[in-house]
Amino acid sequence: MIRILRVSLSLLFAVAAPVMASPDILNPLVKQRADPQVTLAADGYYYLAATVPEYDRIELRRAHALNGLGAAPAKVVWRRHASGPMSANIWAPELHRIDGKWFLYFTAGRSDAPFDVRLYVLENAAADPLEGEWIERGQLKTGWESFALDATTFALKGQRYLAWAQRPPSAAKHMTAIYIARMDTPLSIAGPAALLTMPEYAWERVKFDVNEAPAVLVRNGRVFMTYSASATDANYAMGMLAAPADADLLDAASWTKSPVPVFASSATNGQYGPGHNSFTTSVDGKTDILVYHARQYRDIVGDPLFDPNRHTRAQAISWRQDGSPEFGLPVADPMP
């Protein structure tokens, strides 16, 4: 049984006024790119890694401004295999600079079992991630074999962590939970994984029991971990965990969990299924920015996984007086 401390919503997850779009962000940033991860690197570029609708490759693009990512050329840095591991459902790439090298963490299945996905890693020693050679480093082992996806990594107080989604060993077929583990190298975890959250609320269990796509923001003496829940249609929404930055992050009791979504569809603003987010900042580092995907319509014909119109979007984050982030509503697109 997971023990997650709960606090009054008025203290940690209080409802606040909707966030207004930063005036220099023009949405959507990039069309038909889901699961976006944007990082502002030391070279002054914003790098975007995201899932392409064909699920067949990993591409990177960069620009000196967020608004430039849509027009930036996409560089394909890796393509799926014809068969065997890493031959289907190439999802959720994330680009990270660690110890002087670039790493791409991504999800992949097999052509004979496309949804039997696992975590994999590519490595590039070049200073420029659009150049050099991306070397396959194989599967990132989590301690047991089951449906696993959406790896992210972050460092805090000299320790690097991996967070990801995976089906627990005894779970039902269509359920995923969020785990965390310490890393001893960029390619491996050290010690057992800790289970942080499972789908328990009704809004996390629409059509599928899903907690996936963790993303981490460290601010104001706390670690905020967002995640996405439910089916990937208009029911998709973001939840959030929070822990003190000096706590044992592998202890589920260190974390509080919001019982309500912190970011969800807005019919008023015409944005549906926002989620699978990442975090970046303005160029000057003064404004935290939420990057996410959403669709511009609610109704989908067929399986939402094969609807290509999840667009990469971004908006500024505001902060409550208690030091927790306020995401508000997914902002409306500019008037044509």
UniProtKB/TrEMBL annotation:
Q: Which InterPro entries match?
A: Alpha-L-arabinofuranosidase (IPR016828), Glyco_hydro_43 (IPR006710), Glyco_hydro_beta-prop_sf (IPR023296)
Q: Which keywords label this protein?
A: Glycosidase, Hydrolase, Signal
Do the record's keywords include Ligase?
Answer: no
Return the annotated region ranges for Disordered: 317-336
Where would one find the signal peptide in this protein?
1-21
Superkingdom classification of source: Bacteria
PANTHER family cross-referenced by the UniProt entry: GLYCOSYL HYDROLASE (PTHR43817), HYDROLASE, FAMILY 43, PUTATIVE (AFU_ORTHOLOGUE AFUA_3G01660)-RELATED (PTHR43817:SF1)
Record's family?
Answer: Belongs to the glycosyl hydrolase 43 family.
Q: What is this protein called?
A: Family 43 glycosylhydrolase
Q: What is the lineage of its organism?
A: Bacteria, Pseudomonadati, Pseudomonadota, Betaproteobacteria, Burkholderiales
